[in-house]
Structure formats: C-alpha cells, structure tokens
Structure prediction request, 341 residues.
Amino acid sequence: MKGQTLPSKSGSAVLCGSDPQDDGVPALKAHSWPDGVDESSVMERLLRKCQIRNQLVRECLAECLGVYVLILFGCGSVAQVTTTQDKKGQYLSINLGFALGVTFGVFVSRGVSGAHLNPAVSLSLCFLGRHSWMKLPFYIFFQVLGAFLAAATVGLQYYDAIQAYSGGELTVTGPTATAGIFSTYPADYLSVWGGVVDQVIGTAALLLCVLALGDQRNSSIPHYLQPVLVGAAVLVIGVSMGSNSGYALNPARDLGPRIFTFVAGWGVDVFKAGGGWWWVPIVAPCVGALLGTLIYELMIEVHHPVIPSELQTSCQEATESKSEVELNGVEPDTEKPSSKL
Prediction:
C-alpha cells in the first residue's frame, strides 16, 4: 500500500505514519514542494505528459501488457510445478495458472484494445470484418513482445530454481529439461501432423467459446463476466486437451517464450526439438481459429433472426442513400418493375 501524503506545518509533505511529534523521531520526508502547490496535481501533470494519444499505440501497449500478464501467471505456474518436482503444484495448477492468467489479461486490456491476446484471435476478427487488417501486424508484434518479456521475467524470478533443478545445464529434452517451462513441446508419442490436428481442434474449440460469449444475440452475458468465462474455456481445454502438446492455442504464447529460451541459453535446440516442432504452435492455431470461426458463423450466428431495430436501421440507411442520390441531381428510375430484367 502506498503511503498517503499529508501537508506539514512547514509546507512540505510527510509520509502518513511518520509523525514528527512521536517519540522525537524525525519524520521521513518524501519531497518538498513550494507553498500552495499540491503534490497530487504535480504528479497528475507529470503523468499527463506521459499520455499517449495515438489510439493504435495505446491498443498495442494494452495487448502487450495483457499478454504479459497471461504468460507471467501461466509460465510462472509451470516453473513452480517443474522446479519443485510436483511438490508445490501439479498439472491442474498449470491449467489454473493459464486460465486465471487469461482472465486477468483480458481485464487488463479489454477496455483499450478488446483483449485479443492471441494473433489467431486477431486474425479471425479481421476475417469477420471486426478488426482492421492494417492493425493486425502491429497487434501480433506487441503480443509476441509481451510474451517474450513475461518469459524473461519468469526466467529471472526462477533463475536459481531452474539452475538447481537442472544441475546448471539448460536442456530442451531429458529428465531435467526446463525449456518446457516456457514453450510447448510434443509428447514422445505424438507425430508432427498429430500435433497439427491437436492444435487445430483445440484452437477451434477456443474460438467457438469466445465467439459464443461475445454474441449478445445468443446469450446476454454481462460484460464483467466474459473474462472469467473466457478463462474457464481455457481451463476446460487444458484439462481435456492438454496432454498431447501443452495446448498452446496461441502463436504469441509459444513464439515469444521460445525466442527467449533461444537467447537465454537453451540454444538452437528449442527450434529443433520434436522434429522441428516450433512452427506447429504458430500455424495450426491460426488454421484452427479460422475453422472455429467459420463453424460458429455458419451454424449459429448467421441464423439469428433480424431484430426490428436492425430493420429500422437498414431502412434508414436506404432512405438516406436515396436522398443522397436525389440531392446529387440523379433522377430516380421511374420505369415499371415489369420493364426491368
């Protein structure tokens, strides 16, 4: 909790709880401001100077921070379970870590960027016409950046634990492998194409759930509950589809931490392991997201009945269009319908 500042008799500010009259102990002074100057107003002006007005930059920063929160809790839970050898958490802990990471990542960024937190989601929304194609590469870059920074944070926080667990040798495979803390790798029995199918199905299921939660004509879920339910969707996918390859479902979630492990000492093996597995969590989730979007649109959303307000809006737009044509000096076609082909 931050200490609240109160004005002293001399015009300076002292931290709450540091009473200069208490036992003769000198007060801890935070900073001295000229008489008549409010410290809070000075701080507000300083923060206002840091305000970014460009909407795209604000959205990209929100995506970066949202993904950072997701990976910080998700990979952090994997690090705790791995380095303690299941003594302080098990597989369910990892699922809960990622589910709650998604939930709070959405809460952090949804008011600014819409909380995509996933290049596959951004891509699907672009195909639906709900997101600008121009913004897509910027969103993807900052999503990957957020994942990279979060992985670096987890690596720093668990550095000693990783060194102790691995015996000081950073490996991708083997009994004390630690690269899996950060990125996904296939089970020994899983083929590359089996992994593609696994990721396509998992991401398609995720998009089905996400689109259903955001479809107000299907179910009027309060906005404040949607992040919690998105996290629940990630949780149920993890507990039902996670054993094959760790349910990446998100190219940024996998690529950002993988790049971190490459530069942090695990080396090029992070791209060679699993028969060159690294591209699967990038390509397959995008395919799965588009498939899930197509399925939901064709089987649910396109069949919603048109509500009266939408009909009124369509009629209003048609009327405005007709009026604009007449104002431009173009006479409406007065021929009878029977004379038209």
Observations:
- The chain has one domain: 55-303.
- The first strand starts at residue 5 and ends at 7.
- Confidence is low (pLDDT under 50) at residues 1-31, 324-341.
- The domain at 55-303 is CATH 1.20.1080.10 (Glycerol uptake facilitator protein).
